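Lecture notes, structural biology module. Today: joint structure prediction for complexes of two components.
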Amino acid sequence: MSIFVDENTKVIVQGLTGGQGRFHGLRNRDYGTRVVAGVTPGKGGTDVDGIPVYDTVGEAVAATGATASFVVVPPRFAADAIIEAAQGGITFIVCITEGIPAHDEARTYNRLVAEFPGVRLLGPNCPGIISPGKCNIGITSGDIALPGGPVGIVSRSGTLTYQALHELSQQGIGQTTCVGIGGDPVPGTNFIDCLAAFEADPETRAVMMIGEIGGSEEERAAEWIKAHMTKPVVAYIAGVTAPAGRKMGHAGAIISGSKGTAQAKMAALAEAGVHVCQNPTEAGEKMVEIVRTLAG
Amino acid sequence: MDLFEYQGKQYFARYGIAVSPGGVADTVEEAVAVAERVGYPVVVKAQVKVGGRGKAGGVKLADNVDEVRTHAGNILGLDIKGHVVRRLWVEHATDIAEEYYASFTLDRPNKVHLGMLSAQGGVEIEVVAAENPDAIAMLSIDPRLGLDLATARRWVAEAGLTMAAREQAAELLVHLYRCYEDGDCDLAEVNPLVFTPDGRVHALDAKVSLDENASFRHPEWDEYRATETEDPREKMAKEKGLNYIGLDGTVGIIANGAGLAMSTLDVVNQVGGTAANFLDIGGGANADVMAAALEVINADPKVRAIFVNIFGGITRVDEVAKGVLEALSRVEIASPIVLRLDGTNATEGRAILAPHLNDRLMTEPTMLDAARRAVALANA
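The predicted structure, tokenised, for the full assembly:
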């Protein structure tokens, strides 16, 4: 099984008529994802390579029955696009937009929680989600993922996620779902959401978790793992050598004072029984070893 | 983007927060002019983005023009923890009855805003938090609702501010929240927030950090950006649109993606090297971006070897390889380059580079191998 999406998920692309939206939207469709509509205000009635475009999310949902949206619009429009998706009946929103102001993210997140319970936002500033062989929403290259499980991946970083997929796939180890939760300070979906979903998914038998400096989501995940997780978890945390007080590329990747260091996260995870690795390669090798020793 | 104190105070003033009358001075004569204008006594304050200015001799009281000259002369050019003072803020000195602390920032775990208010100001809030956490009144603020005056009144009472200061403080906090929110601050901090013997509440210091993602709606930030970075490498990288952070090591780093770039620093460190920088070229690394990245790293005299770590996703590795060759044809690079190329079209990319490989340009099959090679070259 997969988490959050599957082969039946119908997806609209908000921003399909833009350069990025077209590129990634069509790639997702080529992968086999059911990309059923695009939404661009003022472009309703046109199409992108055969995919019909609507003016509003509401119209697109009414016409197609879509439940997921891929938001690929510039930062200044992203918060409104996310709210429009929720208002239009979408229940799973993937926003890859990088550069959304933190205050917009905080307001949007709290609006979703208060006004649209049951709607999940993935991102912003994330690579998206891929359930190999079933559904790919976002910017991950489908060809580096391998269907069939048994590994679930959850990550704050895009390229490190690709690296993890690649290392597992090369060893013949597939993935159930790979979720990029993104590198911003207010992620819509966090580690615990994904860990809980993987724990509940019978086909996922081990989880790889890729974190980085900043915030305390990894520490919270460690507490959750200790209390609830029965499946093995391998973790890698980037930024051991990152200087304090600097944003390391991602808006959320910053050590504030003594808070948010890689060392503290690694210690918390190790204490929770997670296999903490020193670099992505080691994490890949460790996961291969774990999967090979899983019975059956 | 962190602001200097004087910029923070100017930013506060835009939102109606009371600050002391003062002005900026880059020379002793300018400092004297400001002092004469605002009236003695004045405080002469070094403008550096680092804590501990007072202890380092960067904040001095002056009662007359001679003292202003002496202190301004001493402080300008002073090195405070590696930050050389080039600018002063001179303001009319304030009598202080009480010192408080106030700040707003994002509470990341709870995804709401966090206000912190304490009647024990003037010292580092981390110290108060560690020694006397009850002395800080925490206020969670729903970003949808903001901070209203009634809530602020309850808050100043809870924090135990002097009765006579409460109403003014509550109003100032509402303004400060507006500055934090409308002003797109990551942090808006006043320490100390002072209550004067003649019954006024105002901001005696300003620590403001702006969220650069909101730049598109703040044209007024351009003036802050002009004074932002002191590291010449970072200045050059910024002009070229690169996401670069200068460090002290000898291995220049180029990677695509922030996570991979961070990870590359870590791996270089693990195999005994030190990174000269963090540099994320992002997606779609073409020849122009690669040339710019190599130029910036080439300009760093400490760099002894360059590690290019690319995992192609949307970025195609053959494009990266072409970019490297094109960059090398345009720029003379002083250090040997080690590449690790993986992901989309990696085979094609390696094939493109194959005829050009030599002891100045080499590839390694894995991230670890490439890190070891680059570190060996840098340490040779």
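Point to remember: Chain A touches chain B through 60 residues (CB under 8 Å).
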